Amino acid sequence: MRFMRGIQAALFSCAALGALTAVASAEDAANWGSFPGYTLKVKLIGGTQYEKLYTRIPEWEKATGAKVEIVSSKNHFELDREIKQDIATGAITWCVGSNHTSFAPQYGDIYVDLKTLIPQATLDEFVPGTLASSMVDGRLVQLPRVTDVSNLYYLKDLYENADNKAKYKEKFGTELAPPTTYDELKQQVIFFANPPNLYGTAFAGKDEGMTGRFMEIVRANGGDMFDENWKPIFNSKAGVDALQWFIDIYNAKAVPAGTVNYTWDDIGQAFAAGTLAVDLDWPGFAAFYNDPAKSKVAGNVGFALSPLGTAGKRGGWSGSHSFSVTEACDNKPAAASLITFLTDYDSEMLEARAGNLPTRTKAFTDVVEEFKKSDTPYMAEMFAVWEKSLADARTPPLVPQWIEVSNVIWPELQAAIVGQKTAQEALDTAAKKATQIMEDAGVLQ
Amino acid sequence: MRFFRSRLSPPILLLMPAFVIIVLVVAVPLLFSLYTSFTGYRLVKPDSLWQWVGLRNYQRLLSDVDFWWAFGRTLVFLTVALNLELVLGLGIALLIDKLTAGQRVIRTIMMFPMMFSPILVGFQFKYIFNDNVGLVNNAIQSLGWENVTIPWLVNPITANLAILMAEVWMSTPIFAILLLAGLMAMPRDPIEAAKVDGCNPWQVFRHITLPYLMPFVYIAMAIRSLDVARAYDMVKIMTNGGPAGRTELLWTLIARTGYQDARMGMANAMSYASILLSVYFTVYFFRKLAAARRTMGGVE
Q1: In chain B, which residue ranges form alpha helices assigned H by DSSP?
Q2: CATH dotted code for A151-315+401-440
């Protein structure tokens, strides 16, 4: 019997290997279809880091005979506003739109379920967790392009400095090493802070950035934003402890006072200027931090996994930039072909080489090998750390009201951080407003 | 066609296209947005346009402390910004008017801030007032106060002052250019006569130049009071109304409610409450303008 099971396993392995080879060869000889004379209208996210991929569009045009007309290219917040206006006026005259896992649930049913347009074999090549996060109400409304999850960047010289090591050991009784928990992170950012020349860290203090970072620690502390009935529960002990973490480092002057107005670029610039010891941030900053022309800390940056909360878990706030196809599109196969092309192996390698986390499993492993071979261990090390953290990656609640709820949470978090309210008062107020939003939407009875 | 010719007088016929355009471009959108303020209209749910909620949006607004704080802050911001821009614009216009050479070059340079989009101005001042890598704090530290770091955009007073400064920098040239036009169109005879009669420069300014300029002042004030909402982009970039709502103005609050939250019904209710502000300022300035023109012997 055991022998038979062994043969069965061997046969299954061979079959699986064969299937994989078939998929790989299908990819090599990708056929993007033929749409001669057709003009595909698209609305894409703009900005230097996103537009490099669009240089591949002429390849697709050549292969299919179609033309791509970029009718709008804006940052995501402006694009979001424009898409909402299009929905309101019923003027969805375009086929492909950039999307994001945080925004997608808001748009109702304007986007098609891509499972009906893209072969399962192609979908199987994506990182399963990333693809699962791209679903809304069981529908695959977007094809992920790059994934984001945060981990720690730190200045290596601070951790290697003998004087720092001795003082840290004397003060806390433990060796100075990159933090593994939020308590340790708090302890270290306060220890390193020497304002105004050096701050322990900085955090995104407004908009969804603030809510997201808070959510990350709430989840790491064992809490969550909503219960299973969509009742806001972030004013629990896990939430209060999470907010208190921000308040403590703010009061200790371990972060710049202006951090409550910072967004990602401000934090990136501050870390690159060498004024932050540690930075919990997105993978897209890795290449920038190590570029001597733009960063003072090039060659001095180390990586560590994002810290664990009091529940021994990682928050892993994650999201993916993506592409969607509209229901109103008059040539869905062409649209599906373009978005598959823009997320195929070559596109994903292009994104990965720029330091973004690819969404195709194969690109992930191949880019690390490539970095190792090309003598850029810095990027290889970065990918290794980020890949580990993907296991704990979790999107914000995939509910249409998320952005609206976020907009009532972050001003209250700010109020507590700058000392206008206690953590409990601020969270209770935010929870009350969030409850009203969920009740108005009919999600919470 | 015969009906129109027989029933309507030529002046009405001639004015008809203008009326039709105004109704289409102004009245219809206004009435539509007024209607939506009584609905639960959400941008992403077009069907909600027919969800009549009566006065609920307005009732919620009445008890919304954050809205009234933003309303009050906007009122103060408008009053201070417009007056400050007027005083500075008048000063600049008077100085430029005195120039005998290079006036055109200076006029052009003076208009530079108007050419920047409010978004760029927002980024520029956000960087200037950044507490960590900003210009102002770096300048203070370079002057010897090495440990001084002022969180300009966090403190409720300095944050509002920083926004006010950005707004004044961006919009003072508009006042200056309008008032300079007034100064250049002004007849010189009364001034020379006053000087011959022994008036000192202050008396000339107070009793001749200023009354002559007042119609220009009120026109500039009326235009700017309506146009000042352009500052939205700037505030959005600098603080987005934060921290903790300390710099929240009606524009940031309404835009967030209408677009990010997609609650257009509520955003329109907020807009109608704030339209009262605009109407008040416009009526006030036009009444002042009429009074000033009467003083100058002009025709109302």
Answers
A1: 2-7, 10-22, 28-36, 56-62, 65-98, 103-110, 112-115, 118-128, 135-142, 156-185, 189-196, 201-204, 210-227, 232-238, 250-255, 264-295
A2: 3.40.190.10
